[in-house]
Amino acid sequence: MSHALGVAAALGSACCFGVATAGQHVAVAATPARTGLDPRLLRDLSRTRVWWATAAVELAAVALQVLAFRSTPVVLVQALLVLGLPVAVLLSGQRGLRTWTGLGLTAIGVAVFGAAQHDVPIRSGSVVGPVLVAAAAALLLVRRPAPVLAGAVAGVVTASAAVLLAAAAALPIGLLVVRPPLYAAAVVGLLALQVGQSALRSDHLGTPLSALTLTEPVAAAALAATALHQRPQLPPTAALATLVAATGVLLLHDRTRPPDPAPPGDNSMTRSPGRLYSALHALTALVVVLQGVWAGIFLEHDGKRDDASSWIDVHARGGDLAIFLAAAATVAAFLTLRARRDLWLGSAVLTVLLVVEAYLGGQVRDNDKDALTAVHVPLAMALMGLVVWLALRARDVERFTAGG
């Protein structure tokens, strides 16, 4: 599998993890309080339909993560998973200057850090280190810790499970069932599920999730370097990008509280249909911002397309994702906000222009029609302006629908 597809799989995994985390926070809040290692927590959660739905999304996230590990270094995959936090923010319905600043800094920091990473093959798959680290960290949850500590512990245990998954993904299919990484990953993965759900027991999702988001990639990088001999590339730009992304995560810290659990029979999501459009457009905006970052990354190669082919492919797949999300937002606006013609017509125009932009990019890349760059780049700027305009127009969308 190509590097570009690995990056795309990691981004898909981040989106799924963000969706699952927001839903699991609601499910955990509705269960009795338990300590971090109390198995009754998972028993209680298994009795709710919301939790099973989010568990299915999380399983898809893990599958995409394993797929990404087949061609992408652990440190890059785990860095891209940081984008699950902005997804949780967008689904929570939070907006504002602080939120958008945090989203932008996180996306830019992760993208620049990822651009500095290179493919490094896994030279060994030792399971002892990750297993011991996960077990030692989990012992801190014997009693109910503060949300920040719970999130940090969940980050360490989740990172251990990720490194074990990477070790298993690197094995040939014939050796997968006779080597220990797969079984160690399964055991530590269940432990990660337990401590992860426990960490979500906080009034504000942002407290444990920010701690988890900051801890997990650092722990994964350390474990990958020792157990798999995959060391991160840390030139000055990557180090600065790490600080930028961390700042973005901290800005999103208190902006991730999802709606309170709905009582039985409540249909608040139906009464506030604008939330669906708002979340879809915000995801579209995030992808469009990343498109600009990736374009800047491969343009630094000054036209040498062979040197930048992987990031050009990532840029192309990002364009496809932006079209899909914009089209979904258009449908959501037309079906649930038909009175807001500015939103569904604007989103339709955005979708069409994204298709045109993708076509122009394909002509430049595949048919060497470099003259079209003079149209492609200004159109990209116009698209960013349209995305911002729609975001400003949608600020009152939930108040609009609530008012009838």
Q: Largest sheet, described in full?
A: none
How large, in whole angstroms, is the Cα Rg? Answer: 21 Å
**Spans with pLDDT under 50 lasting ≥5 residues?**
255-272, 400-404
Question: CA-to-CA gap between the ends?
Answer: 49 Å
Strand residue content = under 5%
| SSE-based structural type | mainly alpha
What is the global morphology? globular
Average pLDDT level: 78
Percent helix range: over 70%
Q: What is the β-strand count?
A: 0
H and E order: HHHHHHHHHHHHHHHHHH
Number of helices: 18
What tags apply to this protein structure?
single chain; 404 residues; mainly alpha; 18 helices
Task: Describe the protein in words.
By secondary structure, this protein is mainly alpha-helical. 73% of the residues lie in helices and 0% in strands. It contains 18 helices and no strands. It has helices at residues 3-29, 40-45, 49-69, 74-80, 84-91, 97-115, 128-138, 147-169, 173-176, 180-199, 206-228, 236-251, 268-271, 274-299, 309-336, 341-366, 373-393, 397-402. Helix 4 runs antiparallel to helix 11 (206-228). The protein is globular. The relative contact order is 0.12. The model is unreliable at 255-272 and 400-404 (pLDDT under 50).
Brief characterization of the structure:
With 404 residues, the chain is mainly α.
Topology:
Blueprint: H1 3-29, H2 40-45, H3 49-69, H4 74-80, H5 84-91, H6 97-115, H7 128-138, H8 147-169, H9 173-176, H10 180-199, H11 206-228, H12 236-251, H13 268-271, H14 274-299, H15 309-336, H16 341-366, H17 373-393, H18 397-402
Helix pairs in contact: 1-3, 1-4, 1-5, 1-15, 3-8, 4-11, 6-12, 6-14, 7-8, 7-10, 8-10, 8-11, 14-15, 14-17, 15-16, 16-17
